[in-house]
């Protein structure tokens, strides 16, 4: 089935609203389980508030969090997939429409480069002034287009790191070091329980893109041994929900390993996604 | 669970303990990175505009206010945490946000009879419990302006008070 300009635009809009206003079923199930299992009274109270918030947000299509995030778009384009003329523009229009619908927080900064850095000219008043980040594309077998819109908030951005690890030919070494970074950052994050997303690649750009793919694809009901090692290490900090102490500092971990190069170094991007993240909306077209 | 209605007195704060669950009612100020240093500057210069802000007994929620709603930002960002000592001396009784604060900030709050509470980014829930909102100062900052809102029940946990903090444990 051919993909039209309008299909793409509408799918991007719907994905953004879904990302900003709902949890995936695996996440809801995990949080419900945590709220039942948590022994710390305050931590349990906050987990219950979080679930109430999720119900209201999903029912009313309201933002889960007021930091609605910066839109990021991930496309997996089938090798036989035909896209309409102006397909990137269609996605941009759909993202803008989604920001108006959700609504996204109007936080785009006015001015030229330096003015934007210094935030000296104020903010745009309209939600759709917020541009999405550069689109990440992958070529995949088939004739479909898989679209994912992710909304990345500011809190986890402050606590994320992308840097090198001297791996010494040991996955244990790499995962141990990343778990150490995350354990340092989670108490300052505030909005725990977190879900760390980790990308391992050859460059800072590639590792960050892999981290975004980990956010898009991750599923709390499917955790491999390395993801579980990160979870166990970070949960040992006992930071707990909202830093109140307790068992659930992180709910799981999403890891994506890309190509590597002949080197003693791996480049790793790790983001402690906060309790409303990863915010992802997905659609398949074609 | 305790219920506290603003404005808060020093005794209200002194009676609190780390870990107390509190439902806040009434008028709450909302400000973050952009405006809190500006209010500190007003305090330093004894700006006549301070009167209309009503800092005495206030709660300042570290949040933007926009069509998307409200929710806590990280209180340990430099411009926010750096403003807490001066705002406490200026009459603010509760700073509300998220994340761990430094021991020196906790001590400054103790010395000035203020406290720190944390809350969740439960924006949809807060939207249901906010009855009014208006810009109080610095409208040029958009969503980061100083806002005044009225709430019918904002759930918080006391994270630092009377020199004690849950983050040191």
Rounded Rg of chain A: 19 Å
The CATH architecture designation of chain B is: Alpha-Beta Barrel
Strand order of the biggest β-sheet of chain B: 2-3-4-5-7
H/E series of chain A: HHHEHHEEHEHEHHEEE
Summarize the structure in words.
The complex is a heterodimer of chains A (286) and B (169). Chain A has 286 residues and is an alpha/beta fold. Chain A is built from nine helices and eight strands. Chain A has one domain. Chain A has helices spanning 5-21, 25-37, 41-60, 87-101, 113-118, 154-159, 171-189, 204-217, 225-235, and strands spanning 70-78, 136-140, 145-152, 161-166, 195-201, 254-257, 265-273, 279-285. In chain A, strands 2-1-3-8 form a four-stranded mixed sheet, sandwiched between helices. A four-stranded mixed sheet of chain A has the order 4-7-5-6. Chain B has a single domain (2-162), classed as Fe-S hydro-lyase, tartrate dehydratase beta-type, catalytic domain (fumarase). Chain B contains six helices and eight strands. Chain B has a five-stranded mixed barrel with strand order 2-3-4-5-7. Chain B starts with a strand and ends with a strand. The chains are: A alpha/beta (286), B alpha/beta (169).
Concise synopsis of the structure shown:
The complex is a heterodimer of chains A (286) and B (169). Chain A is α/β, with parallel strands linked by helices. Chain A has one domain.
Name a few traits of the molecule.
heterodimer; A: about 290 residues; alpha/beta; 4-stranded mixed beta sheet; 8 strands; about 40% helix; globular; B: about 170 residues; fumarase; 6 helices
